[in-house]
Structure formats: structure tokens, C-alpha cells
Write a structure and sequence with these properties.
- This protein is mostly helical.
- It has one domain: MetI-like (MetI-like fold), CATH 1.10.3720.10.
- The chain has 12 helices and no strands.
């Protein structure tokens, strides 16, 4: 029983600086969103930044667009990552080492993935040139618009490419702890591969899937680099709106940028709480299957 307090005490020299920086950043952000600590600027209405945002239709559309991109990209990455990890796990053990290539996107920065997408998908990019050489199109103008779409398909695709290997790593690590004899027993009892996956494998993987979903959703929701390279100007991801207010607007509008950061933090915190509650209710049901 005394082990955990001792571990925490041993970690205090590392935890205190990180906690101080994290909490200090949150406190300063919240205070500046209320017009406090804004140097020589004085605001009669401390909720000026929040009122400005709520009256801005662009902000509401940008927030909804960010939620849509994050939820779509994360869901697709979770599905692909789980299935690919399962297929690799089912391969003979001697082939597992050859599948390490799927980890390559993990070492690439997000901004590098964004520029790769531009090089590949632009109207004068690699795919357009290849289509022209194969006679599929008569000119580069006939190549479909795949970048800077209001639908966010380019950002979603880039996030899926970058996040799927992350899910695969976590899910594969979880699968390596699974007792394969349970599958053999289920097969002997006449269970199909599909039923085995959904009744045995998937419930076992839910902790890794839940962790992956939360991490990737929060990162995609507030990510800046990919939306900066690939994003459309309207409505745009909320991170681009913050960047614009922080660096391109008058300093007097700094509370608006800080209000957006505060709202992103609250929305992310609310999402984590809601997701954990929903996942907690679903887990007992999954175990009953």
C-alpha cells in the first residue's frame, strides 16, 4: 500500500516543473481571456473576448468543422489501425518483422506529411503528372481538386495516414498479451472468425482503442500544422483562427484568442469526460456478449 506514495514522491522533482508550467499556462490563458494581465489595455467588459466569439458565426462554423474533422479522421484511423494490427497479429510470427514498414509515418512530422500531400495531390503534383502520362487526362486542369477543400477531405486523409500507425502500435501491443487459446476454444465450439473478433478480440482491445481515440481526437481537434498547410480559408480549423487572432490582429484583440484557447480546453475536457462515461457504460455490455 505504501508503494504508490513512494513512487509519487520519487517523481515529484519531475512532476512539479511540468505541473507548474501546465497550470501556469492555463491560468494565464484564462486571465487574459478575461482582459486581465493585458499590459496597458483595460476592458470594461471582462467577457469581451467571449462575447466577440459567440457573436461571430465564423467561429461557430470553425469549431463545428474542427469537431467534424477530428471525429472523422480519428474514427477512420481507429478502424483501419485496429483491423491492420489484427491482420498483422494473425500472420505467422516469422513475417511480423517484415511489417515494420507501417511505422514509417510515425517518424514523419505532421507538417512533412502535409507537404507530401501537396506534392502528391496538387493539380501539378505527382499523381496529376502520372495521370497525364498514362493518358487519363488531357491537361492538368482536368485533375480533380483534392486540396484545400471545404469538406476537409485533404486534412482528414493526412491525419488518417499519420494516426493509423499510432493506433496499430497500441493495438498490436495489446494483442500480444491476448491468450490465443481462447480463440482455439471458440473455434472448437463453432464460432465464426467474425464472431470471435467481435466477442473476444474487440472487447479485449477496448482499453487501447479508448486511449487511442482520446489522444488522437484531442490532437486533431487542436492541431495546427496540417490545417496550416492543407486547410481551406473558410470555415477553417479553429487552430488557424487562433493563430490569426494571436499574430495578425491588434493586441487589443488578444483576449479573443485566449478565449478561443480556453473554450478549446473546456471542449476537450468535456469530450474526455463524456467519452469515458460512454465507454464505461459500453464495456460491461461488451463483456456480456
Amino acid at each position: 500500500m505504501m508503494r504508490h506514495p513512494r513512487v509519487l514522491l520519487s517523481l515529484l522533482p519531475l512532476l512539479i516543473p511540468f505541473a507548474a508550467i501546465f497550470l501556469g499556462g492555463i491560468i494565464i490563458t484564462v486571465l487574459q481571456s478575461l482582459g486581465i494581465l493585458m499590459f496597458s489595455y483595460h476592458y470594461d467588459d471582462i467577457f469581451f473576448g467571449y462575447r466577440e466569439l459567440l457573436a461571430d458565426r465564423w467561429f461557430v462554423e470553425s469549431a463545428l468543422f474542427s469537431l467534424y474533422v477530428a471525429a472523422t479522421a480519428t474514427t477512420i484511423a481507429i478502424i483501419f489501425g485496429t483491423l491492420f494490427a489484427y491482420l498483422i497479429w494473425r500472420l505467422p510470427h516469422r513475417y511480423h518483422g517484415r511489417t515494420v514498414i507501417y511505422k514509417v509515418p510515425l517518424i514523419l512530422p505532421h507538417i512533412a506529411v502535409g507537404f507530401m500531400a501537396v506534392i502528391l495531390l496538387a493539380k501539378t503534383g505527382v499523381l496529376a503528372a502520372l495521370s497525364y502520362q498514362l493518358g487519363l487526362i488531357d491537361s492538368f486542369t482536368q485533375f480533380p481538386d483534392l486540396l484545400y477543400r471545404a469538406s476537409g477531405i485533404d486534412i482528414i486523409g493526412a491525419y488518417v495516414y499519420k494516426e493509423t500507425p499510432f493506433v496499430m502500435v497500441l493495438v498490436y501491443a495489446m494483442l500480444s498479451r491476448f491468450e490465443s487459446r481462447l480463440m482455439d476454444c471458440a473455434k472448437m465450439l463453432g464460432a465464426s472468425p467474425t464472431r470471435i473478433f467481435f466477442t473476444l478480440i474487440l472487447p479485449f482491445l477496448m482499453p487501447a482503442i479508448n486511449t487511442s481515440f482520446i489522444i488522437l481526437f484531442i490532437f486533431s481537434f487542436g492541431g495546427f500544422d496540417l490545417p496550416f498547410v492543407l486547410g481551406d480559408s473558410y470555415p477553417g480549423m479553429i487552430s488557424i483562427r487562433i493563430y490569426d487572432y494571436f499574430f495578425h490582429k491588434d493586441l487589443a484583440l488578444r483576449p479573443v484568442a485566449m478565449a478561443m484557447l480556453t473554450l478549446i480546453f473546456l471542449m476537450s475536457l468535456g469530450f474526455i469526460i463524456a467519452y469515458l462515461k460512454i465507454a464505461g457504460k459500453m464495456m460491461p455490455a461488451a463483456r456480456k456478449l
